[in-house]
Amino acid sequence: MMTVAFLKAAIIAGTPLLFATLGEILTEKAGNLNLGVEGMMLMGAVIGFQMGYSTNSPILAMVFAALAGAIGALIFAFLTVSLRANQVVSGLALTIFGTGFASFAGQSLVGLKMTDAFNASFKTIKIPGLGDIPFLGEIFFNQDIFVYLGYITAIILGIYLYKTSKGLNLRAVGENPAAADAASVRITRYKYIHILLGGALCGLGGAYLSLVYVPVWQENITAGRGWIAVALVIFSAWNPYKALFGAYLFGGLDIIGFRLQGTGIVISQYVFDMMPYLVTIVILVIVSMKKDIRNAPPKALGEPYFREER
Amino acid sequence: MNNGSAYVSMRDITKIFGTVKATDNMNLDVAEGEIHALLGENGAGKSTLMNMLSGIYIPDSGHIYIGDREVRFSSPRDSINAGVGMIHQHFKLVEVLTALENILLGFKIGIFVKKNDQKRLIQQIMEKYQLEVDLDKYVYDMSVGEKQTLEILKTLYRGARILILDEPTAVLTPQETVKLFKIMRRMKEQGCSVIFISHKMNEVMEIADKITVLRKGRTIDTLDKGNTDPQELTELMVGRPVDLSIKRVDKTSDNRVLRVKNLRADNEEKLEVLKGISFDMFQGEILGVAGIAGSGQKELCEALAGLYPIKEGEINFKGENLAGRSPKEFITRGISMSFIPEDRLGMGLVANMDIVDNILLKQYHGNKGLFVKRKPASEKAKEIVKKLEIKTPGVHHPIKNLSGGNIQKVLLGRELDSHPELLITAYPVRGLDINTCLKIYDILNGEKKKGVSILYIAEDLDSLLGLCDRIMVISHGEITGIVDARVATKEQLGLMMLGNKEVDHAV
Amino acid sequence: MQFRLVKIAETSKKKQTFIFLAAILLALFTTGLFIMFLGHDPVKVYLSLVNGAFGSRYRIEQTLIKAIPLIITSLGIAIAFRMKFWNIGAEGQITMGAFCASYLALNYSYLPRPVLLSLMLLGGFIGGSIWGIIPAFFKAKWGTNETIVTLMMNYVALKWIIYLQYGPWKDPAALGFPKIPNFAENAILPKFLGLHIGWVIALFLVISVHIFMNYSKKGFEIAVIGESVNTARYAGIEIFKTIVLAMFLSGGICGLVGMIQASGVNLTLSKDITGGVGYTAIITAWLGALKPHWIVLVSILFAALVQGSSYIQTAFGISAASAQLLEAIILFFVLGSDFFAKYRLVIDWKGLSRKKENKL
After folding, report:
1. Which among B105, B113, B268 is the nearest to A164, CB-wise?
2. What's the CATH number of domain B245-334+423-507, 3.40.50.300, 3.40.640.10, 2.60.40.10, 3.90.226.10?
């Protein structure tokens, strides 16, 4: 069952991307373009690993990874929401900060390994019933807890955005903050909360890499996945459900080279290493070629909001 | 604080923007069941004052009372809770949401959006005030009139007792205005206080019970409608006796300058926005263009100026077909046409650059070599500043810091400097005070006398009827008629704007 | 009590400079607290940072050698940023510039030195400019998000060099160690006044870019596009051509850095050729307000930071990554400080007492 194993692995490889993409969707729905995803993932990855190693508690590792991402996001939120700084540059600064922070804090973690007990908490769990569905069950419902958390987060976000009144308010904040403000939505509060939540999700995405996917500490563990996530947000048209598809698709691309090695297909591994990046470019170009009002970014994305602006 | 009948009372309100006192110790009293007009020119402080009543701006000093209580609003949320609702000149609606979603926005209605429960409530309000809104329609599909009705419904749904309408008729046809006035009277009957911001004398005289006149950030006087007349109001508003009538200069020539034939264009979503436009323009005439906002005026101007892709048709300017030519070709071929776009800082000028660089924008193509020559541009800038009496600290001053009128003068001055034979102007007096408006009408008439033919797009039917020789009405990208401005009426234009093809008075 | 913001109409140059300097001091102070938290004396650390960067002729030379690529890359980035084209692909552009130059260096070492070096400079420029033109084309044609495309292209370039380093270009004389052969003498940049000649190129570029951006027609057009694409169209500027040209220059200038680093510093090509300069230069370009003369100053300071931090690593055991952290923190503070040039915070104490009265 080569394909099943491959698809199953694709979902695992796509999970960090999924968390980061969902986080960035939330952030951008609030009208803020945070290009610091890579940085927040790295912060989450290193803090998660550090906590996991020192406390041996998977829960604490995840909580602190999320917190680390949220703290990164807090810097960004303070700069762009309260101080109305340029969002593009602030996001870049956050990525640089996060990268520096991770290599600073990660220096002492190189070569360390988690205990077997710790790793056991992230072993695959078969969901009774669903896991027995032929073909699909093995791919989707025989996974580790993080993967399930990914499904749940995407679905909750979808419901939140499209069915709840808070989600409605959030969409309005990203589209037209002046209108939302006049309708008594608290703009600053909405922006802060969702940027922070977004950062927490990015932190979790990073933690999946360092705790489960790799799972030892290595420098620059994210390898540009944060940037791919930013592209996936565009690809998924700011829709959490489509983000599921996009993230797993890219998860597949990420591992295809490695998988094909054993099959006798002779293409250099390095060419496949380029694939996720090349495909991201191709997809961005295709998406930008066809314009559709329903797939457009939030209208006020990247614009600071000041009520008394005339 | 209670002076008997006043329900809303604003006392000694001052608000400073940068160095400008937008409102200077303003006072206003409005009773329940009263339609109160705020009359004043652009820049008099009407909108600023009302933005403070609706919590958008926070006053620097002064007091606001509603009922018997002093209130201090730090956000629109506070003012909504106090029963204030404002319909802004630029609608505060989210385009990609439906009417219903816009109404429910920001409203405490539980965790999930229960559309059907809310719909019934809203329907009741619609019946009470006789409003008509399709609740499931997306805002981007709505006409301006529909959007306005939706805004009114939105504020009423929030329980507003004090309704502020900021220049609501500016974007409406005369027929839609009649409808709006009906709604306003209905609100008055229900005991609401309605504040109506306007600078149009006749409308104020028609609908208001009381009129407060504002000028340059100060409250001048509050009058009962019965005790005043348009002449007095005008004088109070402008500060001196002024003749508001626009002089029309007679057209002298019958030489055709421009012939547009069957012009068609699609927008980005592949919808046809210009549907076979054909018309002629003659030397020394002003051809007005009237239409509801978004009927294709912007696309028409930009298509003529080479800025909008044309699908089909011909633009024959003095024997040369311009269709498909780029702005750069216009310049290199020396085509004698100028365009004053609607969006002055977003298209005509660069906000962050100084006057010199903005003048340079149209000159540098002619500079020889690889480098720009700022010296001649600088001299030209000084000349224009002097000629048009532009108020600026200097020519090396970012133009975004200038007032709207001065910005428009920079743009107009630069464009007229090239001595065009055809001048396209989109909403050239929008947002300007009366003196600047009159000055700009004078400039246009002056150009007309020189034989320039002018395409004049405007929303204000009075100025169209007063200034133009002929008026072309467009609706949904089609011409519904071209009428003689000397004999046309506003009602007639209004019907044509709504899409009724009018053949009477056609020329 | 009520807080509210008031927009300031205009801020004097003097006040702006003051705010900028205050931001940098605050950034140093904040980092100082962090150093204290790590158990070191911040004053001592900062002093030895300065000592490490400027304490001897050798150190000054090292600092300047690090400043050269930063200055040139920032200049390239500044051209793109002026157009509000967020080129964060300098890493890739440097890499591809280095690749083209190295191809020439490794294959045509028999050419006379001046000819070969000139060809390598040209190659470096072209390599970088191709990497710049590709995202520019997509952006100009379809509005494709340039931030992500330029960034993705960094990784593509990096993987390409890794492929060469581990594959076809591997030095057979290196006993299986994955490295590309060193350049021949002919392909190495000569020295001038103690430093490799790259500094002369940098100086030349600083002046050229200054003139280009402020006095040339194309520079003016780039600035107009950066302010408003609609105005640019209205003014008859050919948007497509100008965007592509700007990125041709931006990428090309970054590509030169690749050539200079390969030929003047590393003497070969490797996957670490950029040393992260492409990212640091984003900060220096921004802090230098996209103005060439400020860029020179900021770049030298940042180079000193990097050079000094490798010194404090040995002296205090503080990781060299701390330099990157400090860079980001300085940028955070300067980004945030702009607010104080644009807005004023007004605190209305009276509001508090009144609100209480209302409740009573």
Report:
1. B113
2. 3.40.50.300
